[in-house]
Amino acid sequence: MKNLPSLRHLMGFEAAARHGNFSRAAQELCLSQSAISHQVQQLEEQLDQPLFHRVGRGVELTMAGEVLLLAVQKSLTTLETGLQRIATYMAPGLVVVVAPAALMQGWIAPQMEAAQEADPQLLPVLSTDETARFIDEVDVDIHISNRPLQQADLHEQVLFRDVYLVVAAKVLAAKLMGQQLPQQYALAGMLCLEKSLSDDLLGPLMRDELAGFRKLAIYDDMRLLLDALRRGRGVACVPYSAIASELASGQIQVLPGYRQVAGETWWIARASGATRSPHVVQVFDALCAAASEIVPISTTQF
Description:
The chain has 11 helices and 11 strands. By secondary structure, it is of the alpha/beta class. Strands 3, 4, 5, 6, 7, 8, 9, 10 and 11 form a 9-stranded mixed beta sheet that branches. The radius of gyration is 30 Å and the shape is elongated.
């Protein structure tokens, strides 16, 4: 078929098939019965197939009509879902923030919840799709990453400098604190991120002070390591940004006596001109303000 049937004709057909009656279909669509009848007739002529049998004062679908009804209802559902998604993205308080997953979960998400408490109209869309590297008025409002985007017409600045901390879940930390290193080594194991083992900055720490811990598991995804850390499986060396909220609540605690290593420098960016709404600038400023209030764990190494 070269030309698809008119959406109006398909909607008239779908209503008639669902009701089994042209009059009720017309009432639903605020049309006349003759208009529904004309739409169905045109559709049948285009398809060269009868779609209904007359039964008393109503109609029943032919075999071709039943096949078409299933296809039309599925298509209309898909179309309605798409329109609802578009409507969501037109919400006046919507702000799309893109950042790495660990940073998003550990630091950004709690900040967005606080911002939403201050402004209930705010609708954050939090994405960890790091391939989305361009700020525009449709897809991305605020981008946070470990390097500047260097895109034209951006307002971009350093958000904060991260730091790697040796930590454990609350119960395990209580068990280790007050113990000398040899005793700590015997009481716990080490959860390792694969890339940390060969990292130029973390390598010396992993091979020196933390080498006495037996390696319990090695992960290639920070989220897997963090899950095991939260469950008290072992000690880990992780960035502050990934566990900030849990450090604040005391669920995860820093183990004293271990070096702290400077981590990523996080950059934040938004459009320098007009933004989707004033909420974008509001969220950008709120994140920058929260970052400025981060209290260094170690004033000499943060």
